[in-house]
Amino acid sequence: MNPVKEHPEWSLYLVYIFLMWIFSKYISVALLIRNIRWWQMKIEPSEFMIHKWFVENPENTMFTWSPWQLTHRTNMLLNSVQRDIIIPYVKKGDKVILWVHDKTIGIYAVGSVDEDPFYSNINSKLIQYYTNDGKLPPEILQVKIKLSVIIHNNPISSVYCYKQGIANKPGPIKYPRRLPFEPPFQWSGFFNNPGKLDAYGWMPIKPIWKDIWENVLEIIQFGKLY
Q: Could you give all domains of the chain from N- to C-terminal order, each with its CATH number?
């Protein structure tokens, strides 16, 4: 017996629930972005040699971040979301957590946005650290960050962040039940626990809550084991 066939109004009800679920998610994210001044920005060493940059620039506290420093930069949908919806909300003075996807995934530095996002060709001193420099467009979207604390030799791991309740669970997110449409995994961290650090998803930038930022500073300040 098919309950949907016997009660066709149920299908409309299920569609209604699903649409409301999608609507609530988008609204929550939109509200989060509009009021946020704290960001998680990600880098993958296979795309940008961040460790080499740290070693060769020990006294340099100015770092220029770009979505092109992450593997999924070629996803047109993600790029358009980053460029047109999320990054425009980043402003000078906003706080940034630099998150690196390496053997130890986690926090490698914190700082603040030094100027509003801008399009420009890559600085000649910085382009040597891009492994995909031959595929980069003439001008890319960039965010200049003034780093206040660099902990690349002893990063705060994603596992520790999860245990402290400031990040979602590392590893693919498993939904309790299948939905007519499930967001791809690179969106999962954006919708799952909005405001927390995204330990697994591949959105290059994510807005976070102020208390998450403050918790990270507390962990760094008091030198807790992580």
A: 36-221 (3.10.590.10)
